Amino acid sequence: MIVLGIETSCDDTGVCLFHSEKGIISNVVSSQVKLHAEWGGVYPDLAAREHTRNIIPVLDRAVKEAKVKLSDIDAIAVTVAPGLIVSLVIGISSAKALSWSLKKPLIPVHHIEAHIFAIFIEQEVHFPFIALVVSGGHTELYIIRGFEDYLYLGGTLDDAAGEAYDKVARILGLGYPGGPIIDSLAKKGREVIKLPRPLLKDRGKNRFNFSFSGLKTAVMREAQKGIYRKEDIAHSFQEAVVDVLVGKTVDAVIEYGIKNVVVAGGVSANSRLRERFQEESQKTGFSVYFPPLYLCTDNGAMIAYTGYRRFKETGRTTGLDFEGKARLR
Ligand code: KG4
Ligand code: ZN
């Protein structure tokens, strides 16, 4: 079976063709990074305009690269939530048009669920596992007991981890997106400033919640002093974020006695986060899994795969009358 996956929830236009036996047969992502760099973040109306321009060329390229015909597609999976509504509707409308004209089923996919299940595209992980989703819009901890069997443990109360990276990069005048830039700059710095580790020691109701907005403000205060090198600020900030992300995940591993951890979303590409998780997994005794880099940031492959899995495991599809949602638990 061949499933087409469409992702347009934020600023990347992603289309993938996933084959049930061969895996990914094409995966095209058109990034709008250069466009949004000017604003230091994603500007929704511009993102929507670019999706409108890109969706058909990206789709066309994905079909050509997979060496199939549109009529070979068996089902169409699309991100329905969460995300920028003006961006989501471009992917959803395209998916509906394809489903209607090709007379093929339409499968709804939740963006966060897809980030988590992207891990299975290249490796096997046994249930249950703890999932830490860290992206531009989300920082969340779950217990994943099986497909469609998820327990939410906690999430961010304000800024997401990726958002904090992007905002700190803006404060330091480094460009957009901030994550990869800070990741490499931090390698040249030292932890000269001891920044707060928000909620890390919280044993109450915020035990598995996150908060990064105060940390960003603390970085701004330190940067304004004008005495530290950017490398050292970047390094100190990254150590604080990584301490919190790893610390809370390890707490969940211990509390629930779960031995597998999956880290997903754009920030899971971070080299220091990967390094620290490897160290902690050996110390505490759990296995940690990261998707390959091309599956960390937004892409159509995670949507196609999760759609395929939904179809195979539940057979559930949707009619043509559904809408996208900016938020959806
Ligand atoms: O998953 P994603 O592509 O989009 C959302 O669903 O939000 O994540 C994008 C986020 C951005 O905030 C970007 O700065 C961050 O992921 N990111 C990184 C790295 N690569 C991307 N953050 C830290 N280190 C990286 N290497
Ligand atoms: Zn994402």
Q: What distinguishing features does this structure have?
A:
five-stranded mixed β-sheet; 2 domains; alpha/beta; globular; binds zinc ion; 329 residues; 10 helices; transferase; tRNA processing; metal-binding; binds 5'-O-[(R)-(carboxyoxy)(hydroxy)phosphoryl]adenosine
Commentary on this structure:
Its main location: cytoplasm. It is found in: Cytoplasm. This is tRNA N6-adenosine threonylcarbamoyltransferase. Belongs to the KAE1 / TsaD family. Keywords: Acyltransferase, Cytoplasm, Iron, Metal-binding, Transferase, tRNA processing. The chain is α/β, with parallel strands linked by helices. Helix content is 42%, strand content 19%. It starts with a strand and ends in a 15-residue tail after the last helix. The chain has 2 domains: 134 residues, ATPase, nucleotide binding domain (Nucleotidyltransferase, domain 5, 2-Layer Sandwich), CATH 3.30.420; 165 residues, 2-Layer Sandwich (Nucleotidyltransferase, domain 5). The chain contains 10 helices and 10 strands. The strands form 2 sheets. The chain has a 5-stranded mixed sheet with strand order 3-2-1-4-5, sandwiched between helices. Strand 1 and strand 2 form a beta hairpin. Zinc ion (ZN) binds next to helix 4.
